[in-house]
Design brief:
heterodimer, A: mainly alpha, two-stranded antiparallel ribbon, 11 helices, 76% helix, B: 432 residues, alpha/beta, Rossmann fold, 4-stranded parallel β-sheet
Chain lengths: 288, 432
């Protein structure tokens, strides 16, 4: 009995780490600008393809491609924010949403044009390796890597927002745009940088997801749904909440599958999401 | 969180669900709107127009790849000497094809088919690639009474939209594929405990397949372990693997989309549970999907083969063999062959044959000509039955390391269709 549940629980927690990496960038943008970035999943898959291109050009390890992918995605974020989203920011909640919706469709179809509909994967030796603890319990290495990076990422960004000037400026702009401008913060620029940082997390998520799963030009949307689940459970503006949200979603799915049946795996995750929305709509870790 | 913020999240969720559902629809029953059944008269034009809805973009774009390359290439041959002689008009007319993108969406497929009929006034509809494309287009063709030649959608799924007056389908039945699956297992069953683990997608295909297979194996002493149908985009299969391990499964059977199977198969390896045989429908049809599994994971996977360069068929128009068509494709694109190529070719073959026999562009006469089709095509002999379908052969294949390509599909089972030669022996077990 214990044996039966050990593996799902372990995998659920580790998978939750990956879910958290997927959600973190979206949570940041929502926390800072109150914008739901519907293109987040697609920007993430864009980073997967970017990494793929670098790998096929240079033949390096997927992790090393981050050296190039991170700065590129940072600038993609910066440009998306300053050229598109900043322009409609003052026009209410819906226009930025629609801009990101349009962006999502454009990215999907651009990827299709360039890369064809074929399945892609960031080849690596980790994706099928496992550390066997007992005959029945093993730790999938790639899941473990995903999880460690998730925790590290969240710790780093937590410190960044607490300790650095830029981090504080971003929080200030988020808390009170007018007051932040009064003390000399260029909020538009700050938003651009914030989106750039969110895209840095998307780059990391894209590479991890690309190493863990197969991807296609249209894969982004399913990660958007995961990101939604994670940030709604965890709290829309809490980084720690994102990690916890990811783990709860992962655990709910895997334990749900073990208890109720594989067919209900995803459903159980979303039922937990609904429960959180009913009981604590701001999310488990959100600050009021 | 304020009300406004909540509204944004809600709106976001709704929009993203829309995005997700974009390509997930299964079939369109013909959107019940006004049904005049009338198409205005054929415009005066000096060519024959075929409408060809194709999933060029979207989740099933892998099937649509190769169009219009295959079609244009063949029509060039047809039109070389001026096209097809139509007695009724007393002259030769070239054949043109208009390929339009369905975006892998059944609703969009119905929409583009309607446009092809009402605006382009096509003489004939030619549609293929999965029920998501074929079913809605057949429904529209029925409504506007336009002859429709359909290929590449499992017969059972297509028949749910029938009975048909104007549409004709050529493809295999789910039942025949189940025969191939069980036939392959029968060959190695003596070396297994005959316990089958089912990895079935929670969709129309997954359900019909699991039922067909379950029906066939019960009398033969197999046992099926079914942990539950798998929803699309499942990211973890630990529960299924656990169940299979407990029940000591030695044969894996399944029918699911490629990305989900890739996730599953990787996790089977991560968790050190590899069955002696794995036979999976739908997910491992295309070499790119197989290669994307990574490492040695594709080794020995078995699946259904609906067409290959080794099929002993040739074009009724050019005499080109299956092998030659695949070679031409590889030369033009640098890519490995895929089964839809043969069907794209056969579609044009049937259309041209029908037009030649109809000797008219009258829709009724074209329809009658389709019904009387008796043609040896690139995908085998086509002769429609009273339910408007013709079964094309299906055999069993296995992915092994190749010489020219990283992974090549060998034909290892042909009991129902010995005319299609085996090109390899079944590799068993795969978990050594």
């Amino acid at each position: 009995m214990v044996q039966d549940f050990a593996q799902p629980i372990l995998n659920g927690i580790l998978l939750g780490g990956l879910y958290a990496v997927v959600g973190i960038g979206m949570a940041m943008i929502f926390g800072i600008m109150r914008i739901t970035n519907l293109a987040h999943g697609d920007l993430m898959v864009l980073a997967s393809y970017l990494s793929l291109v670098i790998i096929s050009g240079l033949g390096i390890n997927p992790f090393v491609t981050l050296v190039i992918a991170i700065p590129v995605m940072f600038f993609v974020g910066l440009i998306v924010q300053s050229a598109l989203i900043n322009r409609v920011l003052k026009k209410g909640n819906e226009p930025p949403l629609l801009v990101t919706f349009g962006l999502s469709i454009i990215i999907q179809n651009a990827l299709l044009l360039i890369f064809t509909p074929d399945a892609k994967m960031l080849m690596n030796s980790l994706s099928t390796k496992s550390i066997f603890l007992t005959n029945y319990l093993s730790v999938p290495v790639i899941y473990l890597v995903d999880f460690i990076i998730a925790v590290a990422l969240i710790l780093v960004f937590n410190q960044f927002y607490q300790k650095t000037y830029l981090g504080r400026a971003i929080r200030a702009a988020s808390d009170d745009e007018g007051a932040a401008e009064l003390v000399g913060i260029n909020t538009r620029r700050i938003y651009g940088i914030a989106m750039g940082i969110a895209m840095v997390t998307a780059a990391i998520a894209g590479v991890l997801v690309g190493m863990t799963f197969t991807f296609y030009p249209f894969t982004g949307t399913q990660y958007l749904i995961i990101a939604f689940g994670v940030i709604v459970i965890g709290g829309l503006n809490s980084l720690l909440g994102v990690l916890v949200g990811g783990v709860i979603l992962g655990l709910a799915q895997l334990i749900g599958a073990e208890f109720v049946g594989t067919g209900y795996q995803l459903l159980v995750g979303y039922i937990i999401l609904l429960l959180v929305l009913v009981v604590r709509p701001q999310g488990i870790f959100a600050k009021n | 969180m304020g009300i406004k913020a909540k509204m944004v999240v809600l709106l976001g969720l709704v929009l993203s669900c829309l995005l997700l559902l974009w390509g997930c629809g299964t079939q369109n029953k013909g959107s019940g709107a006004s049904n005049s059944g009338q198409t205005s008269a054929r415009p005066e034009r000096d060519y024959i127009l075929i409408g060809r809805p194709n999933p060029t973009t979207g989740p099933i774009a892998g099937f649509g790849e190769g169009s219009p390359w295959v079609e244009e290439r063949l029509l060039e041959e047809v039109n070389k000497d001026g096209g097809i002689y139509i007695q009724e008009l007393g002259k030769k007319l070239p054949v043109k094809i208009k390929v339009v993108d369905t975006e892998s969406d059944p609703t969009k497929a119905a929409e583009v088919a309607t446009k092809l009929i009402l605006e382009d006034k096509v003489d004939l509809m030619l549609v293929m690639h999965t029920p998501a494309t074929v079913n809605p287009v057949s429904a529209i063709a029925e409504r506007y009474q336009v002859p429709c030649i359909a290929l590449d959608a499992p017969v059972e799924a297509w028949l749910t939209g029938g009975p048909y007056q104007w549409s004709y389908l050529a493809f295999w039945t789910t039942d025949a594929v189940a025969d191939v699956f069980v036939g392959m297992w029968d060959e190695i069953a003596g070396d297994t405990n005959k316990i089958i683990g089912g990895l079935w997608a929670n969709d129309a295909d997954g359900k019909t397949f699991s039922e067909s297979v379950a029906k066939k194996i019960s009398a033969k002493g197999y046992k099926m372990v079914d942990p539950g149908k798998i929803p699309a985009n499942t990211k973890d299969f630990t529960a299924s693997i656990n169940k299979f391990r407990q029940e000591n499964v030695e044969i894996l059977a399944g029918n699911m989309v490629a990305p989900d199977f890739a996730t599953a198969w990787r996790q089977f390896h991560q968790q050190g549970f590899i069955p002696k045989m794995a036979t999976i429908g739908r997910a491992i049809l295309f070499p790119t999907d197989v290669a994307a599994l990574g490492g040695d994971l594709p080794m020995g996977l078995t699946t259904e083969v609906w067409w290959s360069p080794y099929h002993p068929f040739k074009s009724s128009i050019t005499g080109e063999t299956a092998q030659e068509l695949c070679d031409a494709w590889t030369q033009a694109t640098g890519k490995q062959w895929t089964a839809p190529l043969g069907f794209k070719h056969a579609g044009i073959e049937i259309a041209v044959d029908v037009l030649k026999r109809a000797q008219s562009l009258d829709k009724n006469k074209i329809r009658e000509a389709i019904a009387q089709t008796k043609l040896d095509t690139m995908v085998g002999p086509i002769k429609y039955n009273e339910k408007h379908y013709a079964e094309t052969p299906v055999v069993g294949g296995q992915w092994v390391k190749g010489e020219k390509w990283p992974w090549e599909l060998k034909i290892v089972y042909n009991k129902e269709h010995p005319e299609i030669p085996k090109t390899g022996e079944l590799l068993f077990p795969i978990n050594k």
